[in-house]
Amino acid sequence: MKNAYLGIDIGSISTKGVIIDEDNQFLASEYIWTEGNPIDAVKRLLELLEAQFDKKHYQVVSVGTTGSARRLIGAIVGASVVKNEITAHAVGTTTLHPDVRTIFEIGGQDSKIILLENGVVVDYAMNTLCAAGTGSFLSSQSHRLGVEVEEFGRIALKSQSPTPIAARCTVFAESDLVHKAQMGYSREDIIAGLCKAVVTNYLNNVGKGKRIQSPIVFQGGVSKNVGVVRFFEEATGERILVDETGHLMGAFGVAILARAAGAAEKPFDFSVSGDSYKTREVNCRKCANQCEIICVYRGSQLLDAWGNRCEKGEMKPA
Q: What confidence tens digit (pLDDT) does each residue in 130-163 have?
């Protein structure tokens, strides 16, 4: 029986999972929508991954989690590694592209830029306040235009004159889009304008003040939009690399980190997806901090707790 390693990237919009072998080769992968419920999303994810996975020849022996709900899901699956998205994406990307200098990542509701030197992260930035220019922004505009978001890039490439769209704010962008449509701009020019606005918004906000150097790797769901890729190349004057598995890079990176945590190896049972979990918030009043502590339970058993800023609020699993 050969060892395998599971990485889970749980975000607000999408949930990604990857199982790799000891040579970092994919054995199974899946990408699904979180739909506002990370626990149910991970249960579905595990069922889908198990259906792909060759359990006759491989055994998952270590799990890593990343993403916005990494602590919660890490507690549920018994993760040996829980890492932030910056680290996970950097590890995954440098494994495939050892010489990468800049990582662009645009997901469903957030985006980030990671700068590296000799495989080490030296700077990064994230947007955390506004979804303008992210996957959810493009998706909402696609519904307004009556076009599948998957078709955006192909349609954008047909445009000879992208329509300027004010995309710094989602509300302004929607208003501007309606105005431009009423003025008679063609659909392909408006869609190209939206794709170009995503790039402009990203570089002027997330990438502001950053020294962008090639090789540049573009990741996240929006990297599948060939229109956005083209406008990134026009704006930077550089070739933009997009991997077929770029949308899974956070999960891939944290699976590699789980493999590196060899001392913590133990058999993983996919039946965890059938258990019942709940979270509870506890207000600690043992000191002036009055921390809000998040507790995760399987049945009546406390799996993990976090949020306390001193030892008085510490809650340990039994």
A: 655 677 778 777 877 878 877 888 898 998 899 8
The predicted-structure confidence for 14-32, as pLDDT tens digits, reads as follows 899 999 999 999 999 999 9
The CB density around residue 311, as the number of other CB atoms within 10 Å, is: 8
Residue 180 and residue 167: Cα distance in Å, rounded?
A: 13
Find residue 22's DSSP bridge partners. none
Number of C-beta neighbours around residue 66 at 10 A: 32
CA distance 204 to 69: 28
